[in-house]
Amino acid sequence: MEIVYKANNIITGVELINVFKSAGWNKNPEDILDAFKNSYYVTAYHNDTLVAFARAISDGYHYTGIYDVIVNPQYQKKGIAKEMMKMLLRKFKGTYFFLSYTEGNRDFYKKCGFEDLPTGMWIDREKSFNLDIDSL
Ligand SMILES: CC(C)(COP(=O)(O)OP(=O)(O)OC[C@H]1O[C@@H](n2cnc3c(N)ncnc32)[C@H](O)[C@@H]1OP(=O)(O)O)[C@@H](O)C(=O)NCCC(=O)NCCS
Predict the structure, then answer these.
(1) pLDDT tens for the 136 residues of the chain, in order
(2) Which of 82, 97, 107, 109 best tests ligand 1's pocket when mutated (most atoms within 8 Å of CB)?
(3) Which has the closest alpha carbon to 86: 46, 42, 130, 126?
(4) Atom of ligand 1 nearest to the CA of 71
(5) Which position among 8, 89, 94, 117 has the lowest Cβ density within 10 Å, counted as fewest Cβ atoms?
(6) Distance (Å) from CA 106 to ligand 1 centroid
(7) Which runs of E-coded beta strand occur in 47-117?
């Protein structure tokens, strides 16, 4: 099966949403395309159909975050996600890489060279939306 990989190519919100949906993820079609355009993203195509993507937000020198690594289930276990991760690791080589993973995916990222971070913290999206910042 020939998979074609691209980076920061022209994509549509509908293509993105279709891949998210295939993996059971719901995203807002109104902001997801903008979010990708504000990121460095890599894509994977089979017969001109978007089947997978991954994206990074980086300052280009020090810090890179990896987000939304998604492969359509029909195309999983073929090395596509690892190849996309390699593209991001090459692009931002020499920076710190950070990510958070969903249940069951830790060992995939281990295979991509990631190690557990004992000193990480975060605020989840819903909490940051509702957070009373002035009362902190
Ligand atoms: C997680 C995901 C991106 C992996 O994509 P994939 O294309 O199937 O992964 P690859 O085929 O590139 O796998 C590379 C290696 O990691 C292994 N691997 C893949 N998913 C794994 C998992 N969840 N746990 C452990 N190992 C995993 C593969 O067996 C393969 O091992 P190998 O190199 O020894 O053969 C994919 O399952 C997916 O899209 N899941 C739904 C969305 C999601 O949860 N994304 C991650 C959010 S944190």
Answers:
(1) 999 999 999 999 999 999 999 999 999 888 999 999 999 999 999 999 999 999 999 999 999 999 999 999 999 999 999 999 999 999 999 999 999 999 999 999 999 999 999 999 999 999 999 999 999 9
(2) 82
(3) 42
(4) 39
(5) 94
(6) 9
(7) 49-58, 63-71, 96-98
Read off the CATH number of the domain in which 105 is found.
Answer: 3.40.630.30
Distance CA 69, CA 78 (A): 14
Q: Ligand 1, residues 105, 106, 122: which to mutate, most atoms within 8 A of Cβ? A: 105
pLDDT of residue 67: 98
Give residues (CB < 6 A) around ligand 1. Answer: 23, 69-71, 76-82, 101-102, 104-105, 107-108, 111
Rounded to the nearest 5°, which phi and psi values hold at 92?
-115, 30
Q: For residues 86, 1, 23 and 14, what is the CA-based torsion angle, rounded to 10 degrees? A: 90
Residue with tokens 């710190």: 96
Domain that holds residue 62: 4-135
Task: Please tell me the distance from the alpha carbon of residue 28 to that of residue 35, in angstroms, as a whole number.
Answer: 10
